[in-house]
Amino acid sequence: MTSVTAAQCTPRLLTIYLRRATWGLPAARRHELWDELEEHLLTRADHLHAFGTAYDQALAQAIAELGPPAKVSAAMTEVYLMPKLLIAAATCALALSAVFVVGAIGKTQTAASVFCHGSPSFCDLWVNLDELLPTLKAQGVTVKNAKTGGGYDLTFPGTAHGSLTLPSLYSGQAERGAPVSSILDSLQNMEAAQISGFAKPVFKVGATELQLVTKNSVPVGEAIYQMLTGIALSDWYRAYSQDSSEFSFWFDLSPFASTNPSLFKHLVATGQEPGSVMLLTTMKAAGVMYCAIAPVDAKGNAVFYLPKPQLSFVDDFKKITPYLAGGRSPATLHRFTGQIGRSASKPYLVLVTPAHPTSDTVK
Amino acid sequence: MNPSPDLLRGHLDLILLSILEARPLYGFAIIQAAKNRTNGYFDFREGSLYPALHRLEQSGVLASELGEAGRNGKPRKYYLLTEHGKQVLAAKRNEFESFTGAVNSLRGAS
User: Fold this and answer.
1) Cα A311 to Cα A265: distance, rounded to the nearest angstrom
2) Is A244 left (phi over 0), alpha (psi -120 to 50) or beta?
3) What is residue A63's predicted lDDT score, i.e. its pLDDT?
4) Which residues of chain B make contact with A35, given a CB cutoff of 8 A?
């Protein structure tokens, strides 16, 4: 038997889990927790491997035992970031957690169901593989068992470099599932990968389209755009920040933000096409970026809930500070381009100039 | 039979402080110690351990120090009780014993 030690093997699955579990924490805390969880998972995997479990399976089991990564990051966020009012909001949200939702077939796209673990305000979305894989096969996607990791290799028709490996993990329920965050992570390697829509988002790779739907209140599109924002902000931070110790980002999903008494409603005239998906960022506190995501309505407006009552739009991420300028908090408005795959020429977000340079909270 | 998740969550601080009373330990070793010293009764299955450890550290009940390199080649983070932590543990023990004593005194009561 070939012996595989943890030091030799740092699988992609582990990276995906650790990235999600430490998501949103200040950089110093993120590194500390990353090391701690990585050590835990590798040690546990080695124990299981020593008792005869194949290493890939051992690592998957170790990850399963530690639980959904969103639950870890939500709990850590409570420790380091979450003000009491937001704790109360998240606790209310927990009442709606662990919802299993059933997919429906759309007219033009095939659908796969999505389910959610943990608090929806820190939603960790999962797709049921027993629904996803047949749906993809029906569209001509080739599905093969991956050589390592216990997942699947998918090859998409109509793309030059159209293959990715999809992990197969526990779902916390009885179903085989794949976290949407890991699908997004894999799709980043495919330049052709795109997303469109908000309430019922559609992933597109070449000729293949997959619509994700829910029948409950979990805003699946918003949660996916949150993940994309996390990737984009992390990229931005790595590229531009001089300070590695203090930066994190914060989201509240809109169903919970809209009832949070500490947040202010803003109606922003975006000047963008109806159906576009927008990101508004401002600084919640020193080192903590607050992000709100909303679709553009038929009149070109988008509704955001933010911790600041008065905003002044700036033309650069780097100009966002926690300090008021003329009594207003600096903010930036961005449009999602729909790009998921990493591309030097196609960013995830583009900065846009709203119709008005400022915004005041509305009732 | 293992304790219910609610029961485990409700007494997590007391369990962790009791384990760390004997000597400093790192996360995985804490889980192993909990399992071994209770014959598998306490079997942490969720990622609740690390947030709890960080919370206790933030509140000054625990301190941490770096130890030998772990399986990822980075120093293991050992948690230890502070003086304040020892006082908190004593208080939590008293509280727990009072509670279980009161529950026991209700047994057989009509």
Assistant:
1) 11
2) alpha
3) 81
4) 72, 74, 77
DSSP per-residue string spanning A88-151: HHHHHHHTT-S--------SSSEEEEEEEES-GGG-EEEEEHHHHHHHHHHTT-EEEE-SSTT-
- Tell me if B71 and A21 make a contact (CB, 8 A cut-off): no
For residue B7, what are the contacts with CB-CB under 8 A and spacing of at least 6? Answer: none
> In angstroms, what is the C-alpha Rg of chain B?
16
Contacts of B46 in chain A (CB under 8 A): 66-67, 71
Q: Are the C-beta atoms of residues A208 and A157 closer than 8 Å to each other?
A: yes
**Interface predicted TM-score of the whole assembly (ipTM), two decimals:** 0.87
Q: What is the pLDDT of residues A33-63, one digit of tens each?
A: 999 999 999 998 888 888 888 787 788 778 8
The pTM of the full predicted model, rounded to 2 decimals, is 0.62
DSSP at A274: T
Rounded to whole angstroms, the Cα distance separating A266 from A303 reads 6
Q: How many other C-beta atoms can be found within 10 angstroms of the C-beta atom of residue B16?
A: 24
Q: Which of A79, A91, A124 to mutate to test the interface with B (most CBs of B within 10 A)?
A: A79
| Tens digit of each residue's pLDDT (9 = 90 or more) over A216-275 | 667 778 888 887 887 787 777 666 665 544 566 677 777 778 888 888 999 999 999 999
